Amino acid sequence: MKTTSHIEQDMQKAKATGRDTRKVVLDRSIRANVPLRKTFVQAPPGAASRHGPLKQFVTGRDLRGLKAYLMIVAACSNGDNGWSTRHDSAVWARMMDIQTTATDQSARTGAWRTLRRLEDRKLITCSRSGTMITVTLLREDGSGRSYDRPAGKTGEDLFLQIPATFWTKGHDEHLDLPALALLLVIAREKPWSAFPAEKAPEWYGWSADTHERGLKKLLDLGYIERMKTFTKAPLAPAGYTGVYRYQRTAITRPRKPRKATQTTTTKKSAARPSRTKG
Q: Does the pTM exceed 0.90?
């Protein structure tokens, strides 16, 4: 009977997980929240189609690709390396959790193929040298234009924010594709907005059933909350109509920047003239 040595057991215990890898990547980006242009989810009013690039992930059932793309935005959007990030293909595979169900070589291949799908959608460019893969962000709207940090000054430049804790605390690991898509949809809008399922095909490009399943999953996980509001409707049988409205819970809301109270106090103390006894 084949047995596992203590050395092999210790090595497995020491091996980094996908969450470990994502945490280090986010720590290096030094961001409490990750910005993502709203045009990724939905095109601005007046566009020929309201569908954003997110539609392609949902209709293509590409959960791995969507998670990988959001992590790339998180890793690159601080601009320290020209909107690029570079890792060994095995690290990319671990970041995407491919190594849990594939051999090392298959995982490396799977990571490269995932990145190439994102490149085909004009969301990134990628290149490799040996086992190293470099990824560079492009504009979130899928236009293929160069990336720049969103400032929120125009309709096409408005952005939503995802807290880094979404990844570092493993909240992303509980989401299926409809739920992750709907989380981005809700993050795009103001708190307590309505998201009618019958509008999903027109507004986002996926089915009403997918829309409803995403909302239900988020509610079950406690990532969003809802309330029902009522409007007077004299011609309705009941005399009123009701609609559900949703917002993110504290788990998935952007983090507020910490106040540097200690630093401020220290500076004030340093600026205050010292008193001497006469």
A: no
